[in-house]
Every structure is written in structure tokens, then in C-alpha cells.
Amino acid sequence: MKFFIDTANIDQIKEAQDLGILDGVTTNPSLMAKEGITGEENIKNHYIKICEIVDGDVSAEVISTDFEGIVKEGEALAKLHDQIVVKVPMIKEGIKAIKYFSEKGIRTNCTLVFSVGQALLAAKAGATYVSPFIGRLDDISTDGLNLIEEIRLVYDNYMFETQILAASIRHTMHIIDCAKIGADVMTGPLSSIEGLLKHPLTDSGLEKFLADYNKNN
Ligand code: E4P
């Protein structure tokens, strides 16, 4: 399972990279705005900065919603760095663009996916990643994890190569459940990743080991 961090915050990206388990980064226009990154040039420079910190894929989202605009923006983003994956919304024009990009060898992440039908279309168009947003489904009393299960079943039925990138992860249990289901990738906040570290028996066990060592040395 690949681990992506879902942020545009440089400190958090560095912290996750330092852990040694980071496989990539996802961003979106809201996450960029949260870090105060505005203006085309600043946004592009920020993507390059992120690519220089991590070893893996960095999703950079287009803001156009028409085919020509998505293609123009996506091609410019892909040229920024070979780690860039063009993030395209799940809309009709987006599907056309994903098909175009896949024929050109430009990698894509189909975002804002909320149904198995949408995920099927993304795979047919040749998306590298599909991003079902599980937290946002949970927010509206719909089972986000069930969507991951359904997409896994459909992709396995036809051996689609599109990777399931479980997005909108809100907490550590989401990561564990996605791993059980077989999501290829998860993207979440640093706190959700760090939650995997925690167990009170680890803390108390280590405390005792160190106390016993210190008593005798
Ligand atoms: C995915 O790539 C998105 O950036 C993200 O996971 C959205 O998550 P949210 O629902 O927490 O905004």
C-alpha cells in the first residue's frame, strides 16, 4: 500500500518524508489556498518545491473544466517535473482529457469520485489513479469504505490497472480499513499516519525496559 500525504504544507511533507515511508503527495486548490499559495507562478513553484522534497508522485490539480483548458493546464503541469501527476475532476470533459493524457503518456489522478460508476469510467479512460473521497461520503451518512470495496471488486473483475487512491481519509482507522480492503494507495493528513504508531502497551513496555536498564547500568 502506498502512503501519500494530503497537504500542501511543506513542514508536514518534510516530516512525513523524514519518516521514510512516504510515497507521494496529493494537493488540491483548497489545500494550496490554506497555505496561502496563490497566483499561477507561485502555485507552480510550490509544486516543484514539493517534488524536490519527496521521491514519489505529486498530484497537481487543474482548475479548468473544459477539455481544451484541462489539456493545456495539464500539459503545462506535467512539464514542471516528472513526478507530477495531473489531477482531473470527474466530469465529462475531465474523462475526455484523461483519455487524451493516457494516450500521451501523461499520468492522471481522477478526483472527486463518489460512485463505482464514476470509478469504472475513470479506469476505462486510462486514469493512473482514481480518488474516491471516503470521508466526504461518511459526512453525509454514506459508507465511504463500502465504495472502496465495490471499486476493488470491479477493478479486479476486469484487471484494470488504475490504482485505487483512497482519499478524504480523516483518521487512522480509515487507513487500516482501506488496507484490509486492498486500496492501492491512501492519502491522508499527517495525524492519520502518525496514529498508526500509537499503542499504550508500546509506551508502557518501553518505559519498563528503559527503567530496568537504568537500574542495572
Ligand atoms: C484528495 O486528493 C483530496 O485532496 C482530499 O483527500 C480531500 O479530502 P477532504 O475531504 O478532507 O477535503
UniProtKB/TrEMBL annotation:
Subcellular location: Cytoplasm
InterPro entries: Aldolase_TIM, TAL/FSA, Transaldolase_3B, Transaldolase_3B/F6P_aldolase, Transaldolase_AS, TSA/FSA_arc/bac
Keywords associated with the record: Cytoplasm, Pentose shunt, Schiff base, Transferase
Chief subcellular location: cytoplasm
GO-annotated cellular components: cytoplasm
Annotated EC: 2.2.1.2
Reactions this protein catalyses: D-sedoheptulose 7-phosphate + D-glyceraldehyde 3-phosphate = D-erythrose 4-phosphate + beta-D-fructose 6-phosphate
Highest rank taxon of the organism: Bacteria
Signal peptide positions on this chain: none
GO molecular function, one term: aldehyde-lyase activity
Pfam families hit by this protein: TAL_FSA
Protein name, entry field: Probable transaldolase
Family of the protein in this entry: Belongs to the transaldolase family. Type 3B subfamily.
Protein's pathway: Carbohydrate degradation; pentose phosphate pathway; D-glyceraldehyde 3-phosphate and beta-D-fructose 6-phosphate from D-ribose 5-phosphate and D-xylulose 5-phosphate (non-oxidative stage): step 2/3
UniProt-listed GO biological process terms: carbohydrate metabolic process; ketone catabolic process; pentose-phosphate shunt
Gene source species: Psychroflexus aurantiacus
